[in-house]
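thread from #wetlab-drylab

HS: before we spend reagent money on co-crystallization trials with iron/sulfur cluster, can we at least see a predicted complex? here's what I'd submit
DV: go for it
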Amino acid sequence: MRWFSPAALGRLTAKRRTWIPAMVPWRAADDGFVTDDVIEWYARFAEGRPGVLVVEATGIRDVPSGPLLRIGDDRFVPGLTRLVDAVREASGGETLLFIQCIDFLAVRRRPPKEKFFRRYLELNDPLLATLAAQGITGDEETIRTALLAMNDEALRAVLSARDFDSYARGYRERVTDIDLPHVRELPNTLPDLFARAAVRAQRAGFHGVELHYAHAYTMASFLSALNTRGDGYGGPRESRARLPLEVFSKVRAAVGDDYCVGARFLGDDVIEGGSDLEDATYFGRAFARAGFDFLSISKGGKFEDAKQPRVGDAVYPYTGPSGHECMPTVKIDARGPFGRNVPLAATIRAAIREDGLTTPIVTAGGIASPWQAEEILERGDADFVGAARQSLCDPDWFEKTRTGRGDQVRRCFFTNYCEALDQKHKEVTCQRWDRLARPEGGAKSKDGKRFLLAPR
Ligand SMILES: Cc1cc2nc3c(=O)[nH]c(=O)nc-3n(C[C@H](O)[C@H](O)[C@H](O)COP(=O)(O)O)c2cc1C
Ligand code: SF4
């Protein structure tokens, strides 16, 4: 099968075209270090010998961010080195290991109404003028009390769209907040932060890095058509691509031409006013020309259309229509979750090939059978075919398929039990693992209810 045949990735050769995209398992320490659970998680995937395994979104800054892996300081390198060693050993040296490098902006929990109107809301001139036009005037206390008494419909009419969103869903920074100095300065700070993270990845022994330009995070927000920054880093497509390209140049200069540097970005934002496939094709061509070693195409996963969180929870970017496209379930529509992103990858790949470039393209999303993968490769829609949830459900499925034991593959239900755990920041596990006999036993989650690793 083509899927089990080698393919080039920059100067590297992947032994197979099978790929496990990044998945956050919530196994890191609260201070961002690699734990034994992290190592065991990736070693378990490595036993299935995918061509490429991508380590979860790992923060490039050295700031507290809960149990998310970090690569924002040299002190994280020894733990990451241990992780690399464990994967090499478990895969018999057959799997290429990349790490996904991420930057994200601040997202706050949805506040209680009282707190928002008493403490957080700024009573600025436009708001005071709107309220005055409705006869609401007086001292600060009177105005805040009046706002607190309004229902959501009335509040929507008087608050700016941004303030209403902060009230209803929690405050969230945008790349367009250039009145905030640290947001204005992102084009100056991010290239170095990504470059230093990539150098650490190289020192830890990873085969390459995947720059996270997808979903709800900083770099994807620069690429999005919603980015209207007027400083040359927003607006027209070429300006939106500018920072992602500058980050890449800095990373490339720091790690050298031999090191594998790829990106994951969106083939479609799937939100109103966001980037579409035409934008993504433009970005893909620009990234390929710049010399990225691979481009992994995802879809959706944005904050803009996410469901309103409960008070005290933070908005989660996989709960709205764009989020459903990112991790589609069997309930999505009549077509089901299967291979929905392939046409995006195919279009971007065809444009890059027209330019005479050979940059490998990775597709993922609802891939759950080797025949699906084989058809994608045969048609030339992608060069690597990834599977996140199917590989989570059965990390051995590549090897089972390759060695003629396809009947033993444990199939993913695509109902997103795993993703619901991710949303709650609980250790990610698969619902199917706990229903099987497990004579070997194994470590359990903190709530004691679930096994932490797939059964053998
Ligand atoms: C629990 C979980 C965590 C994820 N974490 C990441 C991540 O860190 N970075 C990323 O780019 N995608 C992440 N994803 C998305 C997957 O990489 C993949 O794109 C998506 O699940 C669709 O592919 P699938 O149908 O093969 O699962 C995550 C998915 C799941 C289920
Ligand atoms: S929990 Fe459900 S959706 Fe997630 S990997 Fe397991 S079977 Fe698939």
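DV: The chain has a mean pLDDT of 97.
HS: ok that's useful, forwarding to the group
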